[in-house]
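Two proteins follow. First one:
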Amino acid sequence: MTALTDRSAITADPRTLIPPDLFSRLAESLARRENLTAGHAERIMEQALAFLLACGLNPGARLSPSPEIDKGWHTFLTYTREYAAFCSRVAGRFIHHTPDDAPDAESASRPETERIGRTIETMRAAGLPVDAELWIPSTACSQCHQGCYDDPGTEG
Protein backbone atom coordinates (compact mmCIF):
# COMPACT_ATOMS: atom_id res chain seq x y z
CA MET A 1 0.00 0.00 0.00
CA THR A 2 1.38 3.40 -0.98
CA ALA A 3 1.36 6.35 1.36
CA LEU A 4 -0.93 9.20 0.32
CA THR A 5 2.08 11.52 0.15
CA ASP A 6 3.40 9.57 -2.87
CA ARG A 7 0.91 11.09 -5.34
CA SER A 8 2.60 9.72 -8.48
CA ALA A 9 2.05 6.14 -7.36
CA ILE A 10 -1.50 6.86 -6.23
CA THR A 11 -2.56 8.45 -9.49
CA ALA A 12 -0.90 5.72 -11.54
CA ASP A 13 -2.88 2.92 -9.90
CA PRO A 14 -5.76 3.56 -7.48
CA ARG A 15 -5.40 -0.03 -6.24
CA THR A 16 -2.37 1.15 -4.26
CA LEU A 17 -4.71 3.08 -1.97
CA ILE A 18 -5.77 -0.10 -0.17
CA PRO A 19 -4.11 -3.43 0.66
CA PRO A 20 -4.22 -5.95 -2.23
CA ASP A 21 -6.26 -8.46 -0.23
CA LEU A 22 -8.92 -5.84 0.51
CA PHE A 23 -9.07 -4.86 -3.16
CA SER A 24 -9.59 -8.52 -4.09
CA ARG A 25 -12.33 -8.97 -1.49
CA LEU A 26 -14.14 -5.83 -2.66
CA ALA A 27 -13.96 -6.80 -6.33
CA GLU A 28 -15.14 -10.35 -5.59
CA SER A 29 -18.04 -9.06 -3.48
CA LEU A 30 -19.07 -6.61 -6.20
CA ALA A 31 -18.82 -9.28 -8.90
CA ARG A 32 -21.04 -11.66 -6.92
CA ARG A 33 -23.62 -9.05 -5.95
CA GLU A 34 -23.92 -7.49 -9.42
CA ASN A 35 -23.27 -10.65 -11.47
CA LEU A 36 -20.19 -9.11 -13.14
CA THR A 37 -17.03 -10.59 -14.54
CA ALA A 38 -14.00 -10.32 -12.26
CA GLY A 39 -12.33 -7.92 -14.68
CA HIS A 40 -15.32 -5.59 -14.86
CA ALA A 41 -15.70 -5.55 -11.07
CA GLU A 42 -11.99 -4.70 -10.71
CA ARG A 43 -12.35 -1.78 -13.15
CA ILE A 44 -15.31 -0.45 -11.16
CA MET A 45 -13.44 -0.75 -7.86
CA GLU A 46 -10.37 1.02 -9.32
CA GLN A 47 -12.55 3.91 -10.46
CA ALA A 48 -14.45 4.02 -7.16
CA LEU A 49 -11.12 4.37 -5.33
CA ALA A 50 -9.99 7.11 -7.73
CA PHE A 51 -13.34 8.87 -7.27
CA LEU A 52 -13.07 8.70 -3.48
CA LEU A 53 -9.53 10.07 -3.60
CA ALA A 54 -10.81 12.94 -5.76
CA CYS A 55 -13.48 13.60 -3.11
CA GLY A 56 -10.77 13.64 -0.45
CA LEU A 57 -8.58 16.01 -2.45
CA ASN A 58 -11.48 18.36 -3.22
CA PRO A 59 -13.53 18.90 -0.06
CA GLY A 60 -16.69 20.84 -0.73
CA ALA A 61 -16.75 20.00 -4.46
CA ARG A 62 -19.79 17.68 -4.10
CA LEU A 63 -18.49 15.21 -6.67
CA SER A 64 -20.90 12.60 -8.05
CA PRO A 65 -20.20 9.04 -9.19
CA SER A 66 -21.75 7.45 -12.26
CA PRO A 67 -24.23 4.66 -11.51
CA GLU A 68 -21.50 2.08 -12.24
CA ILE A 69 -18.99 3.74 -9.91
CA ASP A 70 -21.70 4.09 -7.27
CA LYS A 71 -21.88 0.27 -7.19
CA GLY A 72 -18.22 0.18 -6.16
CA TRP A 73 -18.76 2.89 -3.56
CA HIS A 74 -21.68 0.94 -2.08
CA THR A 75 -19.55 -2.19 -1.95
CA PHE A 76 -16.75 -0.40 -0.09
CA LEU A 77 -19.25 1.11 2.34
CA THR A 78 -20.26 -2.37 3.47
CA TYR A 79 -16.71 -2.89 4.75
CA THR A 80 -17.28 -0.17 7.33
CA ARG A 81 -14.05 -0.39 9.33
CA GLU A 82 -11.84 -0.53 6.26
CA TYR A 83 -13.84 2.23 4.57
CA ALA A 84 -13.61 4.52 7.61
CA ALA A 85 -9.84 3.97 7.88
CA PHE A 86 -9.44 4.64 4.15
CA CYS A 87 -11.43 7.88 4.40
CA SER A 88 -9.40 9.05 7.36
CA ARG A 89 -6.16 8.38 5.52
CA VAL A 90 -7.03 9.87 2.10
CA ALA A 91 -9.41 12.64 3.14
CA GLY A 92 -8.86 13.30 6.82
CA ARG A 93 -12.61 12.85 7.24
CA PHE A 94 -15.37 10.34 6.58
CA ILE A 95 -16.59 10.60 2.98
CA HIS A 96 -20.35 10.39 3.35
CA HIS A 97 -22.53 8.86 0.67
CA THR A 98 -25.44 11.27 0.48
CA PRO A 99 -28.30 10.89 -2.02
CA ASP A 100 -29.46 14.27 -3.29
CA ASP A 101 -33.16 13.46 -3.37
CA ALA A 102 -34.00 16.25 -0.91
CA PRO A 103 -36.09 18.99 -2.59
CA ASP A 104 -33.56 21.68 -1.69
CA ALA A 105 -30.44 19.71 -2.65
CA GLU A 106 -28.09 21.82 -4.75
CA SER A 107 -27.00 18.90 -6.93
CA ALA A 108 -30.57 17.88 -7.75
CA SER A 109 -31.00 21.00 -9.87
CA ARG A 110 -28.07 20.08 -12.15
CA PRO A 111 -28.43 17.32 -14.75
CA GLU A 112 -26.61 14.05 -14.03
CA THR A 113 -24.39 14.52 -17.09
CA GLU A 114 -23.24 17.91 -15.78
CA ARG A 115 -22.47 16.53 -12.29
CA ILE A 116 -20.55 13.56 -13.68
CA GLY A 117 -18.76 15.71 -16.24
CA ARG A 118 -17.55 18.01 -13.46
CA THR A 119 -16.39 14.97 -11.49
CA ILE A 120 -14.43 13.62 -14.46
CA GLU A 121 -12.79 17.03 -15.00
CA THR A 122 -11.83 17.17 -11.32
CA MET A 123 -10.36 13.67 -11.41
CA ARG A 124 -8.33 14.42 -14.54
CA ALA A 125 -7.10 17.71 -13.08
CA ALA A 126 -5.82 15.75 -10.07
CA GLY A 127 -4.01 13.33 -12.38
CA LEU A 128 -6.33 10.44 -11.56
CA PRO A 129 -7.12 7.84 -14.22
CA VAL A 130 -10.61 7.93 -15.75
CA ASP A 131 -12.11 4.83 -17.37
CA ALA A 132 -14.57 6.74 -19.57
CA GLU A 133 -16.71 3.70 -20.36
CA LEU A 134 -17.66 3.40 -16.68
CA TRP A 135 -18.58 7.07 -16.35
CA ILE A 136 -21.15 7.26 -19.16
CA PRO A 137 -24.41 7.93 -17.31
CA SER A 138 -27.30 5.54 -17.68
CA THR A 139 -30.94 6.49 -17.33
CA ALA A 140 -31.36 4.99 -13.86
CA CYS A 141 -29.19 4.22 -10.86
CA SER A 142 -29.56 0.68 -9.60
CA GLN A 143 -28.35 1.45 -6.08
CA CYS A 144 -30.37 4.23 -4.51
CA HIS A 145 -31.43 7.66 -5.65
CA GLN A 146 -29.77 8.95 -8.77
CA GLY A 147 -27.24 11.70 -8.10
CA CYS A 148 -25.52 10.58 -4.92
CA TYR A 149 -22.66 12.82 -3.88
CA ASP A 150 -19.97 13.25 -1.25
CA ASP A 151 -21.32 15.58 1.43
CA PRO A 152 -18.39 17.08 3.32
CA GLY A 153 -20.77 19.01 5.55
CA THR A 154 -22.08 15.89 7.27
CA GLU A 155 -20.00 14.79 10.22
CA GLY A 156 -20.08 11.25 11.42
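Second one, unrelated to the first:
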Amino acid sequence: MGHSMGEGRRRLIVMDVDSTFITAEQIDLLATRAGTGEQVAAITERAMAGELDFAASLTERVATLAGLPVQVLAEVRAEISLSPGAAELVTAAQARDWPLALVSGGFHEIVDPIADDVGITRVRANRLQAREGVLTGRVAGPIVDRAAKATWLRAFAAEEGIDLIDTVAIGDGANDLDMLAAAGLGIAFHAKPVVAAQADRAITDGGLDQVLTWL
Protein backbone atom coordinates (compact mmCIF):
# COMPACT_ATOMS: atom_id res chain seq x y z
CA MET A 1 0.00 0.00 0.00
CA GLY A 2 2.95 2.34 0.60
CA HIS A 3 2.27 5.97 1.26
CA SER A 4 -0.73 6.50 -0.97
CA MET A 5 -3.57 8.39 0.66
CA GLY A 6 -5.71 5.29 0.99
CA GLU A 7 -9.10 4.98 2.64
CA GLY A 8 -9.05 4.26 6.32
CA ARG A 9 -5.77 6.01 7.08
CA ARG A 10 -5.91 8.29 10.09
CA ARG A 11 -5.28 11.89 9.21
CA LEU A 12 -4.23 14.85 11.29
CA ILE A 13 -5.84 18.12 10.16
CA VAL A 14 -4.14 21.34 11.26
CA MET A 15 -5.84 24.62 10.45
CA ASP A 16 -4.93 28.27 10.59
CA VAL A 17 -7.66 30.30 12.32
CA ASP A 18 -8.00 33.85 10.97
CA SER A 19 -9.55 33.95 7.48
CA THR A 20 -9.39 30.13 7.44
CA PHE A 21 -11.30 28.51 10.32
CA ILE A 22 -13.06 31.84 11.02
CA THR A 23 -14.00 34.55 8.52
CA ALA A 24 -12.30 37.48 10.25
CA GLU A 25 -8.86 38.62 11.43
CA GLN A 26 -8.88 38.82 15.23
CA ILE A 27 -6.26 41.56 15.43
CA ASP A 28 -8.22 43.75 12.99
CA LEU A 29 -11.42 43.40 15.04
CA LEU A 30 -9.54 44.31 18.23
CA ALA A 31 -7.82 47.26 16.57
CA THR A 32 -11.16 48.64 15.37
CA ARG A 33 -12.15 48.93 19.03
CA ALA A 34 -8.86 50.67 19.82
CA GLY A 35 -9.42 53.19 17.00
CA THR A 36 -6.47 51.82 15.00
CA GLY A 37 -8.49 49.55 12.70
CA GLU A 38 -7.48 50.94 9.31
CA GLN A 39 -3.78 51.20 10.15
CA VAL A 40 -3.70 47.66 11.57
CA ALA A 41 -5.75 46.10 8.75
CA ALA A 42 -3.24 47.50 6.24
CA ILE A 43 -0.35 45.90 8.17
CA THR A 44 -2.25 42.57 8.42
CA GLU A 45 -2.83 42.58 4.66
CA ARG A 46 0.88 43.11 3.98
CA ALA A 47 1.94 40.48 6.52
CA MET A 48 -0.41 37.86 5.04
CA ALA A 49 0.88 38.63 1.54
CA GLY A 50 4.41 37.91 2.78
CA GLU A 51 5.67 41.49 2.53
CA LEU A 52 6.42 41.88 6.24
CA ASP A 53 7.95 39.71 8.95
CA PHE A 54 5.02 38.19 10.82
CA ALA A 55 6.38 38.40 14.37
CA ALA A 56 7.58 41.99 14.02
CA SER A 57 4.35 43.10 12.39
CA LEU A 58 2.26 41.35 15.07
CA THR A 59 4.22 43.12 17.81
CA GLU A 60 3.58 46.43 16.06
CA ARG A 61 -0.15 45.71 15.68
CA VAL A 62 -0.63 44.50 19.28
CA ALA A 63 1.09 47.66 20.56
CA THR A 64 -1.88 49.65 19.24
CA LEU A 65 -4.21 47.73 21.60
CA ALA A 66 -2.63 49.13 24.78
CA GLY A 67 -5.29 50.39 27.16
CA LEU A 68 -8.20 48.28 25.87
CA PRO A 69 -10.20 46.67 28.68
CA VAL A 70 -9.97 42.86 28.66
CA GLN A 71 -13.76 42.48 28.29
CA VAL A 72 -13.29 43.62 24.69
CA LEU A 73 -11.89 40.13 24.01
CA ALA A 74 -15.26 38.53 24.80
CA GLU A 75 -17.08 41.14 22.68
CA VAL A 76 -14.86 40.40 19.69
CA ARG A 77 -15.27 36.66 20.19
CA ALA A 78 -19.05 37.08 20.06
CA GLU A 79 -18.73 38.79 16.65
CA ILE A 80 -16.77 35.94 15.08
CA SER A 81 -18.29 33.38 12.72
CA LEU A 82 -16.84 30.09 11.54
CA SER A 83 -16.00 29.90 7.85
CA PRO A 84 -18.45 28.05 5.60
CA GLY A 85 -17.87 24.30 5.85
CA ALA A 86 -15.74 24.57 9.02
CA ALA A 87 -18.27 22.90 11.32
CA GLU A 88 -18.93 20.17 8.71
CA LEU A 89 -15.21 19.44 8.34
CA VAL A 90 -14.79 19.16 12.12
CA THR A 91 -17.81 16.86 12.48
CA ALA A 92 -16.61 14.57 9.66
CA ALA A 93 -13.06 14.38 11.09
CA GLN A 94 -14.35 13.64 14.59
CA ALA A 95 -16.61 10.88 13.23
CA ARG A 96 -13.50 9.26 11.72
CA ASP A 97 -11.43 9.75 14.88
CA TRP A 98 -9.05 12.11 13.06
CA PRO A 99 -7.31 14.58 15.38
CA LEU A 100 -7.77 18.27 14.64
CA ALA A 101 -5.65 21.22 15.73
CA LEU A 102 -5.81 24.98 15.38
CA VAL A 103 -2.61 27.01 15.09
CA SER A 104 -3.05 30.74 15.14
CA GLY A 105 -1.16 33.99 14.96
CA GLY A 106 -4.25 35.24 16.85
CA PHE A 107 -4.98 34.85 20.53
CA HIS A 108 -5.84 32.08 22.98
CA GLU A 109 -8.28 34.41 24.73
CA ILE A 110 -10.42 34.46 21.58
CA VAL A 111 -9.65 31.10 19.94
CA ASP A 112 -9.94 28.76 22.96
CA PRO A 113 -13.69 29.22 23.53
CA ILE A 114 -14.36 28.87 19.77
CA ALA A 115 -12.37 25.63 19.73
CA ASP A 116 -14.18 24.38 22.85
CA ASP A 117 -17.53 24.96 21.16
CA VAL A 118 -16.64 22.51 18.38
CA GLY A 119 -14.65 20.05 20.50
CA ILE A 120 -11.14 20.88 19.27
CA THR A 121 -8.70 20.44 22.16
CA ARG A 122 -5.38 21.24 20.48
CA VAL A 123 -4.88 24.96 20.11
CA ARG A 124 -1.66 26.95 19.80
CA ALA A 125 -1.96 30.73 19.63
CA ASN A 126 -0.54 33.90 21.15
CA ARG A 127 -1.50 35.40 24.51
CA LEU A 128 -2.23 39.05 25.14
CA GLN A 129 -0.55 40.46 28.24
CA ALA A 130 -2.97 42.27 30.56
CA ARG A 131 -2.53 44.18 33.80
CA GLU A 132 -5.34 45.25 36.12
CA GLY A 133 -7.97 44.35 33.53
CA VAL A 134 -6.35 46.29 30.68
CA LEU A 135 -4.27 45.12 27.71
CA THR A 136 -0.66 46.28 27.92
CA GLY A 137 -0.06 46.21 24.17
CA ARG A 138 2.35 43.30 24.46
CA VAL A 139 2.25 39.63 23.59
CA ALA A 140 3.02 37.30 26.53
CA GLY A 141 5.55 34.61 25.64
CA PRO A 142 6.97 33.50 22.29
CA ILE A 143 4.99 34.43 19.17
CA VAL A 144 3.31 31.72 17.10
CA ASP A 145 4.80 32.60 13.72
CA ARG A 146 5.40 30.85 10.43
CA ALA A 147 8.12 28.52 11.78
CA ALA A 148 6.15 27.70 14.94
CA LYS A 149 3.10 26.59 12.95
CA ALA A 150 5.17 23.96 11.11
CA THR A 151 6.81 22.89 14.39
CA TRP A 152 3.40 22.31 15.98
CA LEU A 153 2.15 20.34 12.97
CA ARG A 154 5.13 17.98 13.36
CA ALA A 155 4.68 17.75 17.14
CA PHE A 156 0.97 16.92 16.91
CA ALA A 157 1.66 14.29 14.23
CA ALA A 158 4.32 12.68 16.43
CA GLU A 159 1.98 12.71 19.45
CA GLU A 160 -0.73 10.96 17.45
CA GLY A 161 1.64 8.54 15.72
CA ILE A 162 0.56 9.87 12.33
CA ASP A 163 3.06 9.92 9.46
CA LEU A 164 3.64 13.41 8.01
CA ILE A 165 2.41 12.09 4.65
CA ASP A 166 -1.01 11.67 6.30
CA THR A 167 -1.16 15.21 7.67
CA VAL A 168 -3.28 17.97 6.15
CA ALA A 169 -2.60 21.67 6.72
CA ILE A 170 -5.00 24.43 5.70
CA GLY A 171 -4.22 28.15 5.64
CA ASP A 172 -4.47 31.42 3.72
CA GLY A 173 -1.51 33.63 4.58
CA ALA A 174 2.26 33.72 4.16
CA ASN A 175 2.71 32.67 7.80
CA ASP A 176 1.08 29.34 6.85
CA LEU A 177 3.61 28.49 4.12
CA ASP A 178 6.01 26.39 6.25
CA MET A 179 3.13 24.40 7.70
CA LEU A 180 1.62 23.79 4.24
CA ALA A 181 5.02 22.64 2.98
CA ALA A 182 5.57 20.28 5.93
CA ALA A 183 2.17 18.59 5.60
CA GLY A 184 1.48 15.65 3.30
CA LEU A 185 -1.32 17.76 1.81
CA GLY A 186 -1.11 21.56 1.99
CA ILE A 187 -4.36 23.34 1.15
CA ALA A 188 -4.73 27.05 0.43
CA PHE A 189 -8.13 28.39 1.49
CA HIS A 190 -9.27 31.59 -0.28
CA ALA A 191 -5.60 32.41 0.02
CA LYS A 192 -3.14 35.14 -0.92
CA PRO A 193 -1.60 34.47 -4.38
CA VAL A 194 1.81 33.61 -2.88
CA VAL A 195 0.12 30.89 -0.81
CA ALA A 196 -2.17 29.50 -3.51
CA ALA A 197 0.86 29.17 -5.79
CA GLN A 198 2.79 27.01 -3.30
CA ALA A 199 0.00 24.83 -1.91
CA ASP A 200 -0.80 21.32 -3.18
CA ARG A 201 -4.46 22.23 -3.58
CA ALA A 202 -6.45 25.44 -3.40
CA ILE A 203 -10.05 26.17 -2.48
CA THR A 204 -11.04 29.32 -4.34
CA ASP A 205 -14.79 29.19 -3.91
CA GLY A 206 -16.90 27.15 -1.54
CA GLY A 207 -16.22 26.00 1.98
CA LEU A 208 -13.72 24.08 4.08
CA ASP A 209 -15.75 20.89 3.73
CA GLN A 210 -14.32 20.60 0.18
CA VAL A 211 -11.20 19.24 1.87
CA LEU A 212 -13.10 16.01 2.51
CA THR A 213 -13.38 15.32 -1.21
CA TRP A 214 -9.57 15.06 -1.40
CA LEU A 215 -9.28 12.61 1.49
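SUMMARY FIELD: DSSP finds ten helices and seven strands in the chain. The longest helix spans residues 146-160.
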